[in-house]
């Protein structure tokens, strides 16, 4: 296989994307679908799920809360029926969590952030690995964040969960490498979109500055002075599942325009 051929994602991959009906997840799902993969997504948002499967015929979906183990079990029942196996798991589910000083963070909000961002990755990985062990081209991608390599004041629950994901990724890469399963984390930076606008607004309120000033602060921390897009993240996911990345595992790769600090 030539280098150029190895850069083309494999058609026919069986791919599961969690929280795949909107945002980064939907961009990843559509990218794999357009590359000729069989794609199944799950999401807690029924309306978003319905929109995706209508807009991209061939993508199948399950409604599920990724932080609930019994919901995850039902997703894998659907995966067996729609895909008949699994080559790629994209563990994408996550929420922004609360913004504020540690003494003001509600315990329930902390627990919800850990449940969605971290526990969901465990629930999906433990069900996916037995299927990946039967794949010829197995890959597990964990969606982290640049907040998984930098401190993030006023966003402690979120940052804590994302640092944990990097530890999980590196541990699973060692554990599963002998079976040929590659495990990598993608660490998006400041991603343009509704969710980031909400994060900026919340941080502006928490620190007493205007939303425009807070947005400018975010941009000034990025060497390229621009946010990344969901499609930038999807492009890296495709690369990590291509033959060109066959010796990449245990990596936490940032897509962030070189975010210098948070």
Automatic annotation (TrEMBL):
Q: Which InterPro entries match?
A: NAD(P)-bd_dom_sf (IPR036291), Sc_DH/Rdtase_CS (IPR020904), SDR_DHRS6-like (IPR051122), SDR_fam (IPR002347)
One matching Pfam family: adh_short_C2
**SUPFAM superfamilies, A to Z:** NAD(P)-binding Rossmann-fold domains
Tagged with keyword Oxidoreductase: yes
Q: Which keywords belong to this entry?
A: Oxidoreductase
CDD domains registered for this protein in UniProt:
SDR_c
Q: Which residues cross the membrane?
A: none
The record's similarity note reads:
Belongs to the short-chain dehydrogenases/reductases (SDR) family.
Question: What is the name of this protein?
Answer: SDR family oxidoreductase
